[in-house]
Structures are given as structure tokens and as C-alpha cells.
Amino acid sequence: MDAMFGRTKKKAGPRTVTLIGKPGCHLCDDARAVVEAVCAETGALWEEKDISQDEELYRAYWEQIPVVLVDGEQHTFWRVDAGRLRRELGA
């Protein structure tokens, strides 16, 4: 456990970034570019999910898209800060 932040350290291996958005969303396009670049730099895996095709994601995040998850936990929404995402991924 990371005593400074009270979190359990992540296990070794590639991290996974999930971008939740929808077609035609300019903020989602901006977020995709940041996620794609940071993941290419850090070796993290990334995936994209369409909120309009998943009722559970829609209920959870419809007011926040784009939403970025790191290893299944919400990292940010609306705007993605490349530096903050790099730090979260350990770069």
C-alpha cells in the first residue's frame, strides 16, 4: 500500500485507459488525441467505448463525457490533461 496516498499500488504490467464518449463530440475527439498520444508514449493500452451503445455507461456518465478511466477507475472527465494522465500511468 502506498502510505502517502492510502492507495494500493497497481500490479506490474500494462495499464489500460478507457475513453468513454460518443460520435460527434468535439471534446471526445480532443480527449482521444491526448489518450492516444500518452498511451503511445507510456506503453499503456487504450480502448474506446461509445456511451450511446451502452445503457449502463450512459446512466453512469452521460453528463460527464468524455470520461477517462485508468484500470477501470475514473481518472477525469470533460478535458484530459496529458501531464496528469502521464503521471497516473507512472511516466
Automatic annotation (TrEMBL):
Entries under Pfam families matching the protein: Glrx-like
Transmembrane segments: none
InterPro entries: Glutaredoxin-like, Glutaredoxin-like_YDR286C, Thioredoxin-like_sf
Official protein name in the record: Glutaredoxin
Organism annotation: Streptomyces showdoensis
